[in-house]
Design brief:
The protein contains six helices and two strands, in the order H-E-H-H-H-H-E-H. It is mainly alpha-helical. It has one domain. The chain is globular, with a radius of gyration of 14 Å. The longest helix has 22 residues.
């Protein structure tokens, strides 16, 4: 769990550095705080939002999940002072890129989704 937090923080820092127009992370502690809150939001809030919007997700063949991920990222941005997402469309782009970078880092380190 702690390794996953570190990997997500590194992913946030990488995405912020490579794509500065999408999001801004102020330092390592901002990245760690954002990764921690993102884990909480994705564990506690996101499942409820996915359940409530299931008909819309089905109608859009799952594409609405991109919107949900972007909204979760914006929520984290609103909660964590050292983390800022520039806007809604940037949140969509950032959530896609973060998923890719986090997955790549997890596969390089050898962590699994469930662990």
């Amino acid at each position: 769990m702690f390794l996953r937090l570190l990997l997500n923080a590194v992913a946030l820092l990488l995405v912020a550095r490579i794509f500065p127009g999408l999001l801004e992370v102020r330092g390592v502690f901002g990245a760690l705080a954002a990764a921690f809150v993102m884990g909480l939001v994705n564990t506690l809030v996101k499942p409820l939002v996915v359940l409530l919007t299931l008909p819309l997700t089905v109608v859009t063949f799952g594409l609405f999940l991109l919107v949900i991920n972007a909204l979760m990222l914006l929520l984290v941005s609103w909660i964590v002072p050292g983390f800022e997402v520039k806007g809604f469309w940037e949140a969509i782009g950032a959530s896609v890129i973060l998923s890719l970078v986090s997955g790549l880092l997890a596969s390089l380190v050898g962590t699994q989704r469930g662990g």
